[in-house]
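Our working data are protein records whose layout never changes between entries. An example says more than a description, so a record of this kind follows.
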Amino acid sequence: MPVARRYHAPMDSLRAELAVLAARLIVEDGLDYGTAKRKAAKRLLGHRVAHDLLPSNDEIEQQVREELALFHADTQPLQLLQLRRSALTLMEEFAAFNPHLAGAVWHGTANEHSDLHVLLFTDDTKGVEIHCIDRGFSVQVGEAPHYAGRGRIEQLTLAWPPHEREGFLAHLSLYPEKDIRGVLLPDAQGRTPRGTLSALRQLLQQPAARTDNPQH
Protein backbone atom coordinates (compact mmCIF):
# COMPACT_ATOMS: atom_id res chain seq x y z
CA MET A 1 0.00 0.00 0.00
CA PRO A 2 2.74 2.56 0.80
CA VAL A 3 4.23 1.92 -2.65
CA ALA A 4 0.94 2.68 -4.38
CA ARG A 5 0.55 5.80 -2.29
CA ARG A 6 3.97 7.09 -3.29
CA TYR A 7 3.16 6.29 -6.93
CA HIS A 8 0.01 8.40 -6.94
CA ALA A 9 1.34 11.29 -4.88
CA PRO A 10 3.03 13.17 -7.79
CA MET A 11 -0.11 12.86 -9.91
CA ASP A 12 -2.32 14.08 -7.06
CA SER A 13 0.03 17.03 -6.61
CA LEU A 14 -0.19 17.84 -10.32
CA ARG A 15 -4.00 17.71 -10.27
CA ALA A 16 -4.04 20.05 -7.27
CA GLU A 17 -1.66 22.48 -8.98
CA LEU A 18 -3.74 22.41 -12.16
CA ALA A 19 -6.90 23.04 -10.14
CA VAL A 20 -5.36 26.07 -8.43
CA LEU A 21 -4.18 27.60 -11.70
CA ALA A 22 -7.46 26.84 -13.50
CA ALA A 23 -9.39 28.48 -10.66
CA ARG A 24 -7.22 31.60 -10.91
CA LEU A 25 -7.88 31.81 -14.66
CA ILE A 26 -11.61 31.51 -14.04
CA VAL A 27 -11.67 34.18 -11.35
CA GLU A 28 -9.30 36.65 -13.01
CA ASP A 29 -10.07 36.12 -16.71
CA GLY A 30 -13.63 34.80 -16.66
CA LEU A 31 -12.77 31.57 -18.50
CA ASP A 32 -15.12 28.61 -18.53
CA TYR A 33 -13.99 25.47 -16.74
CA GLY A 34 -13.02 23.50 -19.84
CA THR A 35 -10.92 26.30 -21.31
CA ALA A 36 -9.32 27.03 -17.92
CA LYS A 37 -8.28 23.37 -17.57
CA ARG A 38 -6.64 23.31 -21.00
CA LYS A 39 -4.83 26.61 -20.47
CA ALA A 40 -3.64 25.55 -17.03
CA ALA A 41 -2.21 22.32 -18.45
CA LYS A 42 -0.47 24.16 -21.26
CA ARG A 43 1.07 26.72 -18.90
CA LEU A 44 2.30 24.14 -16.42
CA LEU A 45 3.32 21.36 -18.78
CA GLY A 46 3.55 22.92 -22.22
CA HIS A 47 1.27 20.31 -23.75
CA ARG A 48 -2.19 18.81 -23.54
CA VAL A 49 -2.99 16.36 -20.74
CA ALA A 50 -5.21 13.28 -20.90
CA HIS A 51 -8.71 14.13 -19.68
CA ASP A 52 -8.61 11.64 -16.82
CA LEU A 53 -5.50 13.35 -15.43
CA LEU A 54 -7.15 16.77 -15.26
CA PRO A 55 -8.89 17.97 -12.08
CA SER A 56 -12.66 17.62 -11.96
CA ASN A 57 -14.99 20.61 -12.08
CA ASP A 58 -15.79 20.04 -8.39
CA GLU A 59 -12.08 20.21 -7.51
CA ILE A 60 -11.70 23.42 -9.48
CA GLU A 61 -14.85 24.92 -7.98
CA GLN A 62 -13.47 24.38 -4.49
CA GLN A 63 -10.33 26.24 -5.50
CA VAL A 64 -12.43 29.02 -7.03
CA ARG A 65 -14.22 29.47 -3.70
CA GLU A 66 -10.90 29.60 -1.86
CA GLU A 67 -9.49 32.11 -4.35
CA LEU A 68 -12.54 34.34 -3.93
CA ALA A 69 -12.44 34.10 -0.13
CA LEU A 70 -8.72 34.87 0.08
CA PHE A 71 -8.31 37.60 -2.51
CA HIS A 72 -11.74 38.99 -3.40
CA ALA A 73 -13.77 38.88 -0.18
CA ASP A 74 -14.16 42.67 -0.16
CA THR A 75 -15.66 42.92 -3.66
CA GLN A 76 -17.09 39.57 -4.80
CA PRO A 77 -20.22 39.42 -2.59
CA LEU A 78 -21.50 42.73 -3.95
CA GLN A 79 -20.66 41.70 -7.53
CA LEU A 80 -22.54 38.45 -7.00
CA LEU A 81 -25.54 40.33 -5.63
CA GLN A 82 -25.59 42.64 -8.65
CA LEU A 83 -25.40 39.68 -11.02
CA ARG A 84 -28.22 37.88 -9.24
CA ARG A 85 -30.41 40.98 -9.33
CA SER A 86 -29.70 41.32 -13.04
CA ALA A 87 -30.50 37.63 -13.52
CA LEU A 88 -33.82 38.19 -11.76
CA THR A 89 -34.88 40.90 -14.20
CA LEU A 90 -33.74 38.73 -17.11
CA MET A 91 -35.76 35.75 -15.89
CA GLU A 92 -38.79 37.94 -15.25
CA GLU A 93 -38.51 39.24 -18.82
CA PHE A 94 -38.61 35.66 -20.12
CA ALA A 95 -40.90 34.24 -17.42
CA ALA A 96 -43.30 32.83 -20.03
CA PHE A 97 -40.57 30.43 -21.19
CA ASN A 98 -39.85 28.71 -17.86
CA PRO A 99 -36.40 30.15 -17.09
CA HIS A 100 -33.83 28.41 -14.87
CA LEU A 101 -30.64 30.10 -13.68
CA ALA A 102 -27.39 28.15 -14.00
CA GLY A 103 -23.65 28.69 -13.82
CA ALA A 104 -21.55 30.74 -11.44
CA VAL A 105 -24.32 33.25 -10.68
CA TRP A 106 -26.51 30.48 -9.28
CA HIS A 107 -23.64 28.60 -7.63
CA GLY A 108 -22.39 31.72 -5.88
CA THR A 109 -18.92 31.85 -7.46
CA ALA A 110 -19.59 34.69 -9.91
CA ASN A 111 -17.63 37.92 -10.03
CA GLU A 112 -17.24 40.90 -12.35
CA HIS A 113 -16.01 38.65 -15.20
CA SER A 114 -18.99 36.28 -15.09
CA ASP A 115 -21.85 36.01 -17.58
CA LEU A 116 -25.49 35.22 -16.94
CA HIS A 117 -26.59 31.73 -18.00
CA VAL A 118 -30.32 31.02 -18.17
CA LEU A 119 -32.01 27.90 -19.54
CA LEU A 120 -35.44 28.34 -21.17
CA PHE A 121 -37.80 25.38 -21.58
CA THR A 122 -40.36 25.86 -24.31
CA ASP A 123 -41.60 24.18 -27.47
CA ASP A 124 -42.01 27.65 -28.97
CA THR A 125 -38.39 28.61 -29.53
CA LYS A 126 -39.43 30.95 -32.33
CA GLY A 127 -41.57 32.70 -29.74
CA VAL A 128 -38.42 33.53 -27.77
CA GLU A 129 -36.79 35.04 -30.82
CA ILE A 130 -39.96 37.00 -31.68
CA HIS A 131 -40.11 38.28 -28.12
CA CYS A 132 -36.54 39.58 -28.48
CA ILE A 133 -37.38 41.28 -31.76
CA ASP A 134 -40.55 42.86 -30.37
CA ARG A 135 -38.63 44.18 -27.38
CA GLY A 136 -35.81 45.51 -29.54
CA PHE A 137 -33.16 43.21 -28.07
CA SER A 138 -30.09 42.67 -30.23
CA VAL A 139 -29.16 38.99 -30.04
CA GLN A 140 -26.53 36.70 -31.49
CA VAL A 141 -27.54 33.15 -32.35
CA GLY A 142 -25.19 30.31 -31.52
CA GLU A 143 -25.03 26.89 -29.91
CA ALA A 144 -24.22 25.47 -26.50
CA PRO A 145 -23.82 21.93 -25.12
CA HIS A 146 -26.92 20.32 -23.66
CA TYR A 147 -26.85 20.42 -19.86
CA ALA A 148 -27.21 16.63 -19.79
CA GLY A 149 -24.59 16.06 -22.49
CA ARG A 150 -27.12 15.18 -25.21
CA GLY A 151 -25.72 17.03 -28.19
CA ARG A 152 -26.07 20.78 -28.66
CA ILE A 153 -28.91 23.25 -28.41
CA GLU A 154 -29.61 26.75 -29.72
CA GLN A 155 -28.38 29.66 -27.63
CA LEU A 156 -29.18 33.37 -27.84
CA THR A 157 -26.66 35.88 -26.48
CA LEU A 158 -27.52 39.47 -25.61
CA ALA A 159 -26.39 42.34 -23.43
CA TRP A 160 -28.36 42.66 -20.20
CA PRO A 161 -29.85 45.03 -19.26
CA PRO A 162 -30.24 46.04 -22.91
CA HIS A 163 -29.49 49.55 -24.12
CA GLU A 164 -27.23 50.25 -21.11
CA ARG A 165 -23.48 50.85 -21.01
CA GLU A 166 -23.03 49.04 -17.70
CA GLY A 167 -24.37 45.53 -17.95
CA PHE A 168 -23.61 41.86 -18.36
CA LEU A 169 -23.49 39.33 -21.16
CA ALA A 170 -26.46 36.95 -20.97
CA HIS A 171 -26.83 33.55 -22.62
CA LEU A 172 -30.28 32.05 -23.14
CA SER A 173 -30.15 28.32 -23.91
CA LEU A 174 -33.31 27.06 -25.62
CA TYR A 175 -34.61 23.60 -24.65
CA PRO A 176 -37.79 21.72 -25.55
CA GLU A 177 -40.23 21.46 -22.65
CA LYS A 178 -39.62 17.72 -22.19
CA ASP A 179 -35.97 18.38 -21.31
CA ILE A 180 -37.00 20.05 -18.07
CA ARG A 181 -37.15 16.59 -16.51
CA GLY A 182 -33.98 16.21 -14.51
CA VAL A 183 -32.89 19.85 -14.64
CA LEU A 184 -33.23 20.22 -10.86
CA LEU A 185 -31.91 16.80 -9.86
CA PRO A 186 -29.19 17.12 -7.18
CA ASP A 187 -25.58 16.91 -8.32
CA ALA A 188 -22.94 14.54 -6.92
CA GLN A 189 -22.68 16.70 -3.82
CA GLY A 190 -26.41 16.81 -3.25
CA ARG A 191 -26.75 20.43 -4.37
CA THR A 192 -29.37 21.88 -6.67
CA PRO A 193 -27.50 22.67 -9.91
CA ARG A 194 -29.98 25.27 -11.21
CA GLY A 195 -32.62 27.57 -9.83
CA THR A 196 -36.14 28.56 -10.82
CA LEU A 197 -37.39 32.13 -10.80
CA SER A 198 -39.05 31.62 -7.41
CA ALA A 199 -35.87 30.05 -6.00
CA LEU A 200 -33.82 33.05 -7.08
CA ARG A 201 -36.34 35.43 -5.51
CA GLN A 202 -36.04 33.53 -2.23
CA LEU A 203 -32.26 33.67 -2.45
CA LEU A 204 -32.31 37.44 -2.91
CA GLN A 205 -34.54 37.88 0.13
CA GLN A 206 -31.72 36.68 2.36
CA PRO A 207 -29.77 39.34 4.30
CA ALA A 208 -26.58 38.97 2.25
CA ALA A 209 -25.49 37.35 -0.99
CA ARG A 210 -24.40 33.78 -0.46
CA THR A 211 -21.19 32.48 -1.94
CA ASP A 212 -22.08 28.82 -1.56
CA ASN A 213 -24.34 26.81 -3.83
CA PRO A 214 -27.93 27.26 -2.57
CA GLN A 215 -29.91 24.29 -1.36
CA HIS A 216 -33.56 23.91 -2.28
The radius of gyration is 19 Å. The first helix runs from residue 2 to 29. The chain has two domains: 2-71, 76-204. Residues 2-71 form one domain.
